[in-house]
Design a protein that fits this description.
This protein is mainly alpha-helical and 231 residues long. Helices cover 81% and strands 0% of the residues.
Length: 231
């Protein structure tokens, strides 16, 4: 496999996530985050995807088969590493100064995570189906529509719960974070489980994700209206 094909695979994984990043940043256009911090978060997302790979390999050796327990463990590890990427790049910094910032930074990290993951999938597809362009396009579209949105949605849910607890006391913030994390892992698990077990219903699965994304956008509009009086 040539370096040129690897470059194309990398660009094929990154460019769609840049589009989604542009889309989500428009939600914070009234008080946008500094571009360099958005870039930091995106890069942290890429590194979190790299770091989770050996963890997932180790988990796969501990839990045999492709059952629900393995899917839960892998979903948990990905959501944990994305959250840690967001925490160390933005969530604990002084520029995280309004509720919506939590959603924006977590989604940015998720898109960085998806960018590398998409690139690796495309590289794998090129290795096994190098001359079958239709297959490569299909893989790219599936990642663009499905997996990228899934990562965005799952991390966005955690961000929403952090945002909703932004003006609350520390104990309440921890409870909200825990609930958001549980919902995120649950959604990620169900998606992966049904993709594996019900490939014939993939359209319904993706449609469900789109509906959930729309609901998240509606919640974002409410988050924008939050003020300190909600504490």
């Amino acid at each position: 496999m040539t370096n040129e094909l690897i470059l194309y695979a990398f660009l094929g994984g990154v460019l769609p996530t840049i589009f989604w990043l542009w889309f989500w940043l428009k939600e914070d256009k009234l008080n946008p985050e500094p571009k360099k911090y958005i870039a930091y978060s995106f890069i942290f997302g890429i590194f979190s995807a790299l770091l989770v790979l050996p963890v997932e390999e180790y988990i796969s050796t501990l839990i045999s088969g492709t059952g629900l327990v393995l899917i839960i463990a892998l979903s948990f590890s990905e959501e944990l590493f994305k959250y840690l990427g967001a925490y160390f790049s933005a969530l604990n910094k002084k520029y995280m100064d309004e509720p919506i910032d939590a959603v924006i930074y977590l989604i940015t990290v998720a898109l960085g995570f998806a960018a590398l993951e998409n690139s690796l999938f495309l590289i794998s597809a090129l290795k096994s189906h190098g001359s079958e362009i239709n297959h490569i396009i299909l893989v790219g579209n599936m990642r663009f529509i499905g997996a990228t949105l899934l990562h965005t949605l799952c991390s966005g849910i955690i961000g929403l719960f952090i945002a909703m607890s932004f003006y609350r006391k520390n104990f309440s913030k921890k409870i909200f974070l825990l609930v958001g994390f549980i919902l995120s892992v649950t959604l990620h698990t169900f998606f992966n489980f049904f993709i594996i077990s019900s490939e014939s219903k993939i359209f319904i699965i993706f449609l469900t994700i789109w509906v959930a994304i729309i609901i998240m956008i509606l919640f974002l509009e409410k988050i924008k209206l939050m003020r300190r009086r909600n504490s």
